[in-house]
Amino acid sequence: MRVEPLEERKAQILAAVVRAHITTGAPVSSSSVADDFAEPLSSATVRHVMATLEEAGYLHQPHTSAGRVPTARAYEFYAREVAAKARLRPADQKRINRSLAAGRADAEQLLGRVPHVLAELLHGVGMVLIPPLAGTVLGQIRFVLLDDRRLLTVVVTRDGRVTDKVIRPRERFRADELDRMSAFLNENFRGWALGAIRAELERRVAAERSQFLRQAAALCRESLDLAQGSALQLEGVSHLVEQMEAAHPEALGALVQALEEKERLARLLRDCLESPGASPRIQIGLEQVTPAMKDFALIGAPYGRAGSRAGSLGLLGPTRMDYARAITAVTYVAALFDRLLAEN
User: Fold this and answer.
1) Of 132, 130, 164, whose CA–CA distance to 228 is shortest?
2) 113, burial (CB in 10 Å: exposed 0-12, middle 13-18, buried 19+)
3) How far apart are CA 263 and CA 60, in angstroms?
4) How many domains does the chain have?
C-alpha cells in the first residue's frame, strides 16, 4: 500500500487519532484530539480535518454519533511516517543484548533465540524464516570416517548454519580419500550455492568421466538434503490467542488454523527479502492470509551476512500495536543478528 504525503497539520492530527485508538481501541472524537493536542486547536478545526481525512480513506466513522477509527491506510501512514523515525528504548536494547548475545552460540542457536526475544519483548508472535539449504552458500564441508560403512558429513554455510549427517555410502572410503575429497570441494566450491555445487559436479561427471568426480558427486547427493524448504519458527502464539479471546472470540479458530498453516505466513516473510534497503517491511491488515487476520500486522526485516540476505525475521501482532517500539526492536534484532553471524 502506497502512503501519500500529508500536509503537516493533517499528519499531526492523523497521528494523534492513531495513537489514541492504539491506547483505547475506541472511536476517537475531535474534542479528545483537540484536548490532547500540543498547540491550541478548536474542536471544530479538528473535526473538519478529520472529515477531510475520512474522505481520503484514512478514517472511517462506524456510527454517525461516534468518533472516527483509523483505517489500515492510516496505520500504514503512522507506522512509516511517525513510528519508523523513533529510536530504540535503552531498556529494550539491553534486554535484547542480554537475551540474544549472551554466551557463545552458533547460527542455529541464534536463530532459535530470535522468535523468543521478539515474542517476550513485544507480546506478539516472534518469527524467523530459515532459508532452504539449496540456496545457501558453502563455507566449508568435511567428511569424517566413523567406521568401514559409515561416515559423518559436516557442512558449514557462509551464514553460519551447521548441518551434519551420518550416511552409508555404497562405496567404502579410506580416511585419506575423504580428506582429499573435502579439500577438493572446499578449494573449488567455497562461495557457491549448495544447489549449484551439485549441478556442476553432475555436469563435470558427464563431461570428464572421472571416478574421483563421480565419487564426490555421489557423496554430495547423499550429504546435502536440498529438498528441505524454508522453515518458519514461531513463538508467542499464546499472546495473540489471549488478545483474540478478549476482542474477537468468534475468529479465534480461524486464527489458530492460520498460524498452524505456516506456509502462508512464511510467504509474507519472504517478501521482506525483496524490500529495498535496510528498512523493515510493514504490512497492515493480513486478510490475504485469512479473513480472521484483517486486524493484524506484520513487521519484518531481512537478515544475512556481508550484505547478502539469508532469511528474514519479524513480529506478528494486532494492528493496534506500539509501532515505534516494535519497528525499532525488529530493526535492531536484525542488525544485531547480522553482527553475531559475522562474528561467528
Assistant:
1) 132
2) buried
3) 33
4) 3
Distances (CA, A) of 202 to 42, 106, 181, 273: 75, 32, 15, 30
Neighbours of 293 (CB within 10 A): 25
Range of the domain at 124: 87-130+230-343
Q: The CATH number of the domain where 157 resides is what? A: 3.30.390.60
Q: What is the pLDDT of residues 73-110, one digit of tens each?
A: 999 999 988 777 889 999 999 999 998 877 667 777 78
Report the percentage of the chain scoring pLDDT > 90.
33
- Asked whether the beta carbons of 25 and 36 are under 8 A apart, the reply is no
Q: Which three cell numbers stand for residue 253?
A: 479458530
* Same domain as 274, residue 291: yes
On whether both 146 and 216 belong to a single domain, the answer is yes
DSSP 33-88: HHHH-SS---HHHHHHHHHHHHHTTSEE-SSTTS-BEE-HHHHHHIIIIIGGG---
C-alpha cell at 187: 578449494
Report the 10 Å Cβ neighbour count for 89: 15
Region of poorest pLDDT, from 4-8, 71-75, 297-301, 314-318: 4-8
Does a structural domain hold residue 1? no
User: Is 52 found in the same domain as 33?
Assistant: yes
* Helices then strands, each counted (H, E), the chain: 13, 10
- Together in a domain, 161 and 203: yes
Q: Domain for residue 166, yes or no?
A: yes
- Helix 323-343 with 90-100: angle, nearest 10 deg: 40
